[in-house]
Amino acid sequence: MYVIGGTASKTTAEDLSKKQQIPLARLISKRFPDGELYIRILDDISGEDVIIIQTTYPDPNIVELFLLQDAVKEAGAKKITVIIPYLGYSRQDKKFEKGEPISAKVIAALISLNADEVITIDPHKEHILDFFSIPAFSCSAVPELAEFLKKKDVDLVLAPDKGALDRAKQASTIIGCDFDYMEKIRIDGTTVEIKPKNLNAQDKNVAIIDDIISTGGTMAKSIAELKKHGAKKIFVACTHGLFAGGAVKKLVSAGCNEIISTDTIVSEFSKVKISPCILQLLLSKRV
Ligand code: R5P
């Protein structure tokens, strides 16, 4: 058995390799002068089970995954497990307007071409797994995020919208505190409104938890609402920290005390590792 880590998910591949004592396949990866990617697997993986780990964001990492999958297939691997810590394009999981593609479906179909099974972490919606034509599984980083938040004396976990309510509830159970949710109205890709609501947040340390922070708009509006309600410390936590554009500045100026994300997308805020939840899923599948 071998583990292969793509550029976007090298540390997770190293974590899994160390924890399970599975060798990391040696790779050559370089760019041609025109920017196209060249990869080559140096180890003999013929007849082996191979785990490829690669987040499919931003776009160049999708191409890298396709090339890795093909190289593994061409090398004669027995079974290919693709682990995608963050599955890009998952928010376009349906046609919102006439004439649009179902982007999540396209990406899933292409990944399915050269893989036997796929695992992803906190997909934006669970039904995305049905777009794969191979067995597809997901696991959640919420327990790991909650364990991290436990050390922060959190009194309340808040979901920034109803869609994130289950995550907030699960985290609050692990932390041993209350949970609540906000009512979000999305105006467009970068603008959201949060409906005013009675929240019991006075003098409380509050953690807002979501699957994705992209522009930071959702979190910033939630922070502002919490400030109005007299919250003490405000933590924002997510599985996938995209931090697009000025997201971090937006969160800090809104009054956030700490930003926490996992390493599905590696950044300075990746304080929580996802390798434990992947490992748990891999081990449970083998029973
Ligand atoms: C939306 O349904 C997601 O769960 C996130 O709330 C959203 O993607 C966050 O986006 P942004 O940071 O741009 O507000």
Keyword list:
8 helices; Rossmann fold; 5-stranded parallel sheet; 15 strands; about 290 residues; alpha/beta; binds ribose-5-phosphate; 6-stranded parallel sheet
In whole angstroms, how far apart are the ends?
17 Å
Secondary structure tally: strands: 15
Strand order within the widest beta sheet: 9-8-12-13-14-15
Count of distinct structural domains: 2
The helicity comes to: 25-40%
* Main β-sheet description: 6 strands, parallel
Ligand set = ribose-5-phosphate
Return the CATH architecture of the largest domain. 3-Layer(aba) Sandwich
Low-confidence stretches: none
Specify the number of helices. 8
Overall spatial form: globular
Protein architecture, described:
- The strands form four sheets. Strands 9-8-12-13-14-15 form a six-stranded parallel beta sheet, with helices on both faces. A five-stranded parallel beta sheet has the order 1-4-5-6-7, sandwiched between helices. A two-stranded antiparallel sheet has the order 2-3.
- It contains eight helices and 15 strands.
- Helix 1 packs across helix 8, helix 4 packs across helix 5 and helix 6 packs parallel to helix 7.
- The chain has two domains: 152 residues, Rossmann fold (3-Layer(aba) Sandwich), CATH 3.40.50.2020; 122 residues, Rossmann fold (3-Layer(aba) Sandwich).
- The chain is globular and about 60 Å long.
- It has 287 residues and is of the alpha/beta class.
- The model has no long low-confidence stretch (mean pLDDT 96).
- The protein is 31% helix and 26% strand.
- The protein binds ribose-5-phosphate (R5P).
- Ribose-5-phosphate binds next to strand 12 and helix 6.
